[in-house]
Specification:
Blueprint lengths: L1 H31 L8 E9 L2 E9 L2 H4 L1 E11 H4 L2 H4 L7 E14 L6 E19 L10 E21 L2 E10 L8 E5 L5 E5 L8 H7 L2 E10 L1
Antiparallel strand pairs: 1-2, 1-10, 2-3, 3-4, 4-5, 5-6, 6-7, 6-8, 7-10, 8-9
Length: 228
């Protein structure tokens, strides 16, 4: 036991010494060489999946010679933004859904400080809440019932992307979600007469191949914005 503690303590000491030495070398490089021209703050938008449409913030830290950054994504989309409430107020079949996506993680630029090709790791959360109307599958009821939607999906993600440009940048990204969306989602449909019915409805249409790739964990988006 004492031998194991000694080995563990020695290992920690060696790791600490290595980190301090690496930091000193980095600081020496930072102050003796020309400072890399990095615009560390980035603000922009993203289009694609799972973001749909939303904003992105990134900060390139001084760590690892300005190659490590912190990135945050946020998207929110409401059904009444697409179809105004006054336009569908009289329609009994109208649906109300709120989509929210949040993601936070780290990017590491492989070749140049704060630009070019990078790999990333993050955690993202999809939330869909609202109310939808469904027709009965097990009875002859002609009026639709109502289902409360409360769907969430969180996943660890890996990405490969590229930050292209300077003041104005363009950013393509592809990646993989380790917890893809389920192919079916169980809901309880409640009808006006009190009758309830369980149905399995996919959150999205997966009959065609692009949607099928989404359900298998594909990440694909395009970003753009400004650096300063």
């Amino acid at each position: 036991m004492k031998r194991a503690i000694q080995i563990f303590s020695t290992t920690l000491l060696l790791i600490f010494t290595s980190v301090v030495s690496a930091q000193e070398v980095g600081e020496e490089y930072y102050f003796t060489e020309d400072k890399p021209k990095v615009r560390p703050f980035r603000i922009g938008g993203k289009l694609g999946y799972p973001n749909l449409i939303g904003g992105n913030l990134e900060y390139v830290t001084p760590l690892l010679r300005h190659k490590l950054s912190v990135s945050v994504d946020y998207s929110t989309l409401k059904s009444d933004w697409i179809v105004p409430e006054e336009d569908n107020a009289d329609e009994e079949s109208s649906d109300e859904l709120d989509f929210t996506y949040m993601e936070g993680g780290l990017n590491y630029y492989l070749f140049s400080p704060g630009k070019g090709l990078y790999v990333g790791a993050s955690y993202g959360s999809i939330q869909i809440k609202g109310e939808m109307m469904f027709f009965s599958e097990n009875s002859d009821r002609t009026e639709p019932g109502t289902a409360d939607i409360d769907f969430s999906n969180g996943s660890f993600n890996v990405k490969l992307g590229a930050k292209l440009g300077g003041l104005f940048y363009f950013r393509p990204e592809i990646g993989y979600r380790f917890t893809p969306l389920p192919e079916s989602y169980e809901i309880e449909v409640v009808f006006d007469d009190g009758y309830t019915e369980m149905q399995e409805t996919p959150p999205l249409d997966i009959d065609s191949s692009p949607q099928d790739l989404i359900y298998k964990g594909l990440i694909a988006n395009i970003g753009f914005g400004f650096s300063f």
